[in-house]
Amino acid sequence: GAGIVLVGAGLAGVRTAEQLRRAGHSGPITMLGAEVHPPYDRPPLSKEVLRGDRTAADVVLQDTAFFADNQVELRTGVRAIGVDTEKRLVSLENGPAVPYEELVIATGLVPRQLPAAAGLAGLHVLRTVDHSLRIRESVGSGPALIVGAGFIGCEVAASLRALSVPVTIVDPLPAPLAGAVGETIGRLVARLHVEAGVDLRCGVGVAEILDDGAGRVSGVKLSDGTEIAAHLIVSGIGSRPAVEWLAGSAIEVANGITCDERGRTSADGVWALGDVAAWFRPALGKHVRVEHWTNAGEQASVVASDIVGGDQPTRPPVVPYFWSDQYGLKIQALGDIDPSEEVRVLTDDGRRFLAVYVNDGRITGAVGCGRAGQLMKLRPLIARQAALSEIPQ
Ligand code: FAD
Q1: Does domain 4-110+240-308 have CATH number 1.10.1740.10?
Q2: CATH number belonging to domain 113-237
Q3: Is the pLDDT of residue 314 over 90?
């Protein structure tokens, strides 16, 4: 038969292939990836790869032997441009359409670009290994400016500071990571950047990208009129789900691909997972799209067992988890972080801290910085939304 086709050869695609074989699926599996590279891991791109501590080859997710041994046909440099869910065909940019029995979509995200600046040299986004290597090549050319103090912007700033590059960060929000973890935690993280010599400018936006008249960025003009010189500009202003290729298909898209709690899309025989997919979360009563590494692996095991059939493995409720590495410290979060919730800081030494999110006296999540041991002890409390008073003193 036509077997299972995976579109998107990233983390979620690879984990799905692994889990399908582990679950005993023996039929054909084909993996289509738009990038020319074999599947690789993205977290190191803003960290070790950018700093030059690991190479592109160091971050591949599975070597060629995995694909051969597991009879997974990996087709790189192959972009899907459409799906016919009636005929069960994936159409490609180059080459004949690929038939499927089951289709799994894991196409990830596309970074948003700063407006009106396309084509200028020295202007970067960071999603792929090629992006990371290109930013690395620009190191040494002069000062860097980071637009957006989200996870990617903060990590790029930290990596560039480790390379002694002068760095300015600009973000309209009042603190770094405020959109993800809220302003209270953001202000604790801000100290790390300032301590490392970053010129951190929050509460102000970029009004204009300046160029040298010869096609290269020279800096930015901020919304308050200030001009900042920069030879390297990295924008980390968020991403959108890679779903354009599904336009006109029967697969429902809202905030990413709309899925039930097992990753099934609105079309029969089609699943989606990873950064591109918004799964229904019964506990929250809504669809949630998660752009973090651990989620992709967790969803892959659910999708694989749903495809293979049989009993769903019974597992304890998963407490969502993500991390970020900045200035030699690990920032980690547990739970469904709602940045608008009340935050209680439990410990803070000026650099390392531990804080919990509280809703109606119950612990819904936690963020730690350099406090892995203490943070992980909170996991069972977060899993059952224990009362704040239950935290051991
Ligand atoms: P991706 O890894 O993006 O893979 C999707 C793949 O699909 C891509 O290779 C893409 O080229 C391909 N594709 C897209 N469209 C098509 C098409 N039409 N046809 C064929 N192929 C297509 N998470 C954390 O929890 N902690 C971290 O510290 C962390 N750091 C990160 C640092 C960076 C720089 C980045 C970019 C991400 C980071 N993440 C981190 C997030 C994590 O990497 C993602 O959650 C994870 O990669 C999601 O996997 P995915 O397979 O859903 O998407």
Answers
A1: no
A2: 3.50.50.60
A3: no
